[in-house]
Specification:
Rossmann fold; CheY-like_superfamily; two-component regulatory system; 5 strands; globular; phosphoprotein; Response regulator receiver domain-containing protein; Sig_transdc_resp-reg_receiver; 6 helices
Amino acid sequence: MSESKKVLVAEDSSVIINLTKNVLLFENFHITAVKNGQQVLDKLAKEDFDLILMDINMPVMDGIACTKAIRKLPDDKKSGIPIIAITGNYKNFTLDDFKKAGLDDYVQKPLDYDLLLSTVKKHIFK
């Protein structure tokens, strides 16, 4: 059996974190959850992940600012990690806005968990 892929979930809603964990754990992903962008950077400094699910609207540091900071990291593996935006405010952004910020893809809220899972798999197993 292959080693489970590590997904970092950055989301300030405990409900969404728990639902996302349940969906991804069922598919044998290892999940770590944090509540803001600064915690993402702190975790990324200590561990490697295969993908980040990034809420756009979070306290302390939002998903856009956090993604830009990740893309500037000196470690090529960490700066190149696939990042998928999770957002309820997708109408405020275009896919082009997300791409310019360094995000690879997005899934809108309320989350369609089949779409979330297929999007995660698309970026982890490419």
